[in-house]
């Protein structure tokens, strides 16, 4: 992902996923692409940004905490989370924040 997400006027929510990967792909790239595709179809999804250079950071944007909760409970997403715990990440953190201000050029 190389685009900056076009988000609406705040407030909205950001889910920040920071991670270190294990060695090898092991199906990760395919699943990551599928998760972006699936998330983009979820009610309340606003956009996503991602970068990886050793430390990976993916930020997904949502219109409500309910939308975030529903995404976390999505069955296919839960399968991806299970694989992440088992084989793709050596460590990770998830942070949820309310975006109250945004500016840029």
Q: Mind explaining what this structure looks like?
A:
With 105 residues, the chain is α+β, with helices and mostly antiparallel strands. It has one domain: Alpha-Beta Plaits (2-Layer Sandwich), CATH 3.30.70.100. The chain has helices at residues 28-39, 65-73, 75-88; strands spanning 12-21, 45-53, 55-62, 89-99. Strands 2-3-1-4 form a four-stranded antiparallel sheet. A hairpin with a 1-residue loop joins strand 2 and strand 3. The two termini are 19 Å apart.
* Secondary-structure arrangement, i.e. CATH architecture: 2-Layer Sandwich
Largest β sheet strand count, sense and barrel closure: 4 strands, antiparallel
Order of neighbouring strands in the sheet with most strands: 2-3-1-4
Class from helix and strand fractions: alpha+beta
**Low-pLDDT residue intervals, each spanning 5 or more residues:** none
Order of helices and strands: EHEEHHE
Q: Which CATH C-level class is it?
A: Alpha Beta
Mean pLDDT: 95
Number of E-type strands = 4
């Amino acid at each position: 992902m190389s685009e900056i997400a076009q988000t609406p006027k705040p407030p909205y929510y950001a889910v920040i996923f920071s991670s270190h990967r294990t060695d090898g792909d092991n199906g990760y790239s395919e699943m990551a692409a599928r998760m972006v595709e699936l998330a983009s179809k979820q009610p309340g999804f606003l956009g996503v940004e991602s970068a990886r250079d050793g430390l990976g950071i993916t930020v997904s944007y949502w219109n409500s905490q309910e939308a975030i909760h529903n995404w976390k409970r999505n069955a296919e997403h839960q399968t991806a989370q299970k694989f992440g715990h088992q084989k793709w990440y050596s460590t990770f953190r998830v942070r949820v924040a309310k975006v109250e201000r945004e500016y840029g050029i």
